[in-house]
Design goal:
The complex is a heterodimer of chains A (443) and B (159). Chain A is mainly β and 443 residues long. Chain A contains three helices and 31 strands. In chain A, helix 1 packs across helix 3. The radius of gyration of chain A is 23 Å and the shape is globular. Chain B contains six helices and four strands; from the N terminus they run H-H-H-E-H-E-H-E-H-E. A four-stranded mixed sheet of chain B has the order 1-4-2-3. The two termini of chain B are 28 Å apart. The chains are: A mainly beta (443), B alpha+beta (159).
Chain lengths: 443, 159
């Protein structure tokens, strides 16, 4: 059986049994997966390089009881590998089910500090029940157990949920494997706003258009996307309900309407309008566009607002100093505070979920790279190499950054760990991926 | 009565501005008389208003350079004389940099053209400025010439 669509097992999705130094770019993993999901047909290629500062050695045994079990394990292995925080230990020769007694010493000898295993059974109604266990070979005991059931179509999602539990039990940080991403796929003259799983699989088309779509932004509950569509010949901000596919313009004033950003409570959108001249930041009601209020007043450009996690201030891009830099302002006006000082071009601010780190796109030596700024110390690190890296966004746990990169002359989806150590690209073989943005935790 | 007088005054001002700034406009109008480019009709493909509707900008520049003043003045004169005609000025940028910041920069280019039209006496209600940023490039390559072709504001007349 397969997971509802042809899904060849990723090839060589292991770091093999050799010990890897955490300091070397030693792990090179390549997976090739074919996707067939509705009209969104695309061939994806995932490349990962680098290793995390700390890698937990973990063994993921094939789940027993149904042919789906090995694919569940493959999805979990691929998730953990992409994080860069795990080193997979081979499980060759072992057959474990959810009731197996674990030989902790043997797995410890093999090099695994943790062992995940389980069973999958097909229920009489055709649904699947997946039971999983996580063992700690050092403490010689069980760390976690979990049972989840769903349709054949939901097997990947269930696998991601198990990977999230493993990730959280071992690292203490909530996993993001069961979250979703949004991006714009341009193929020829067609633009598609697509929603996919965090690993790029299972893409669904939310909107197809002959005109550009930019700046998708997830509502905090993950139920809606705000974005800018040029379908009427100019930029207009829409809010799109993903379950019903209902969509409506919320900002359609004279001039441009762009750069939507959600308040943390999901009730307010910050947008950029040019109705009063050049680009300035306003807020309005996310449901109906009511209560339009101007936030910034500068003679030049203020754009790309994002709410601070506490919802009380906005970070934004402004060229009031003569070059584009990042500023922060309260929602009730007041003098904005300049945040970025390195280099002559810093745009696209994105704040980490804990409010401590700011991502920007920075221009250095003619290349555009993703920079990470520690707001407390002002220390900056460049997470990427360029040459044209754009549209960064944090995973909801703050551990990964998604962005758009140029590879082979085309725009692809790329990811980097927040410490810059592990990078990956996910390219579609027949199109350009733009404007990616990582969605919230699933609710 | 006062509105008409004001319109006449601004029209006269526009004509005087156009007249004193450049001679190239008259040359083009004269030379184009036979093939129709002297006709001030943006919907006639032969008209100078249809043929010359793009203002190009230098790298990192958001002001209308001297060589495009007469072009803008021709459009301004037409708009003043045709107060019911509406036009959208569409700003564009080259492909370098972020989508939203480029959208804002394209708007600066469109606004630079609009401000000139306002000085020529064109009513604000006739003009909408929008930006397409880097999203609708006319030239698709990545050479300096392609970039230059895309740093542009276009007059787009609405029927």
């Amino acid at each position: 059986m397969t997971f509802n669509r042809p899904y060849p097992a990723p090839s060589a999705c292991k770091t093999s049994g050799t010990a890897l130094s955490g300091w070397l770019l030693a792990c090179l993993v390549t997976m090739l997966a074919l996707l067939f999901a509705g009209a969104a047909q695309a061939q994806l290629r995932v490349d990962i390089s680098g290793t995390g500062a700390q890698q937990y050695p973990v063994a993921i045994a094939d789940f027993s009881g149904d042919a789906a079990g090995s694919q569940i394990a493959e999805v979990i292995r691929a998730d953990l590998t992409r994080s860069g925080q795990f080193r997979l230990i081979a499980t060759t020769g072992s057959t474990l089910n959810v009731d197996s007694t674990i030989a902790f010493d043997e797995w410890r000898t093999r090099g695994a500090d943790f062992i995940a295993y389980g069973s999958v059974i097909r229920l009489s109604d055709g649904r699947f029940e997946v039971k999983y266990r996580l063992g700690d070979t050092v403490k010689r005991g069980s760390l976690d157990g979990f049972t989840v059931s769903g349709t054949e179509k939901e097997l990947r999602r269930m696998s991601h949920q198990i990977a999230d539990r493993i990730y959280e039990k071992i690292t203490g940080i909530k996993g993001v494997f069961a979250t979703r991403i949004a991006y714009v796929l341009k193929q020829g003259k067609t633009y598609e706003l697509q929603i996919a799983d965090a690993d790029g699989q299972n893409p669904q088309v939310a909107l197809r258009s002959r005109e550009p779509i930019i700046s998708p932004a997830w509502s905090p509950d993950g139920a809606r996307l705000a974005y800018v569509s040029f379908e009427s010949g100019k930029p207009v901000v829409y809010v799109h309900h993903l379950t019903t596919s209902k969509r409506a313009p919320v900002a359609n004033y004279k001039g441009n309407n762009s750069a939507p950003a959600w308040s943390p409570d999901g009730n307010t959108l910050a947008v950029v309008l040019t109705r009063d001249g050049l680009s300035q930041i306003y807020t309005l009601g996310a449901n109906d566009g009511s209560n339009l209020r101007r936030v910034t007043r500068s003679p030049l450009i203020d754009t790309e607002p994002v709410f601070a996690p506490d919802g009380r201030s906005l970070f934004f891009t402004s060229d009031r100093s003569g070059s584009p830099q990042i500023y922060q302002t309260g929602l009730d006006g007041g003098e904005p505070r300049r945040i970025s000082f390195n280099g002559g071009y810093n745009i696209s601010p994105r704040i980490s979920p804990d409010g401590k780190t700011l991502l920007t796109v920075t221009r250095r030596d003619g290349t555009y790279r993703i920079a990470s700024l520690n707001l407390a110390t002002g220390a900056e690190s460049l997470l990427t190499d360029g040459r044209d890296d754009q549209s960064p966004s944090f995973a909801p746990n703050g551990m990964q950054v998604l962005y758009a990169a140029i590879q082979g002359g085309r725009s692809v989806l790329a990811g980097v760990s927040s410490d810059g150590r592990v990078r990956q690209t996910l390219s579609v073989l027949n199109g350009e991926i733009r404007e990616p943005t990582w969605g919230p935790f699933s609710q | 009565m006062s509105r008409i007088a004001k319109a006449l005054t601004t029209a006269a001002l526009a004509v005087s501005l156009a007249a004193c700034s450049s001679v190239s406009l008259d040359d083009k109008a004269g030379a184009g008389g036979a093939d129709g480019s002297g006709i001030l009709d943006p919907f006639n493909p032969q008209s100078i208003l249809a043929k010359q509707r793009s203002v190009y900008f230098d790298f990192n520049s958001y002001t209308v350079s001297e060589q495009y003043r007469s072009l803008v003045e021709t459009h301004g004169k037409y708009l003043v004389s045709t107060p019911q005609q509406r036009v959208v000025i569409e700003g564009n940028t080259d492909a370098r940099g972020g989508s939203e910041y480029n959208l804002a920069l394209g708007q600066r280019r469109a606004e630079a053209v609009r401000r000139m039209l306002t000085l020529l006496g064109v009513s604000d209600t006739q003009v909408e400025t929008i930006s397409l940023g880097k999203e609708k490039p006319k030239a698709l390559g990545n050479t300096d010439a392609d970039y230059a072709e895309n740093r542009r504001a276009d007059f787009n007349y609405k029927r």
